[in-house]
Amino acid sequence: MTEAPDFIKNLKQISTTCQINCNPPSKDEIICTLKQLKNGKSSNDIPAIYLKSAIDSIEVLNEMTKLYDAVWKTEKIPQKWSHSRLITIWKGATKGKIDDPSAYRDIQIGSTFSKVLVIIILERIRTWYEKQIPDHQQGFRQGRGTTDGIYLVKRIQQLSYRSKKPIFVLFVDLSAAFDHLNRKWLFKSIYQRLATKESEKLFKLLEKIYALTTTALLENENDIHVIKEYAMEGQRHPLCLTFTTNML
Known about the structure:
Blueprint: H1 6-17, H2 27-36, H3 48-54, H4 58-74, E1 83-90, E2 104-109, H5 112-130, H6 146-163, H7 183-193, H8 200-211, E3 214-217, E4 220-226, H9 238-247
Parallel strand pairs: 1-3
Antiparallel strand pairs: 1-2, 3-4
Helix pairs in contact: 7-8
């Protein structure tokens, strides 16, 4: 295929109307992002509450700004930012026996520094990707939720019942779709939508983070597993899920 499909061309038009800030993060951005983080959350490096308490120090803030400036310009992500610790939580008796591995939900505890970088990128491109998402997409969107979709389906059913007209509903369940997505295809789809090379900076940084992901069990930090190609369940992030939905 030598030419991009028409819908890709249309998405490029969106990129021409949305200006994406590609400059290194400012001090104000870092402060704002840290304030968004919730206290009491686990971390693979420094808990968010420590960094939030330290930003009142000019010296700490300057060092953090220098750190993100260096990462931004070199596009080199510290390996620890892509490493996470894995813990599992039993879903309960309704999901299976306690000795059944499939009855457990895995949770990845990642880096706070990495989370700050991802949130900054997400906020900068929010307008760009929101314009690409169809209006019927409810999940993983700010100010929306799957309850909106449930309400719409219920209202349609009620109107159909009153008017005595049949309705037809198709439910498609993509089993573990996000767990088996090839990340190279995901980012390739994103790059095709961009109108300029300058806009690739933010997505290259994201790609670097996901390209070097490793994980280890909380009980055994030395047993490290490399996650090379696919976006595993524990690595789910609203940004990655949004682009995944678009690509599918």
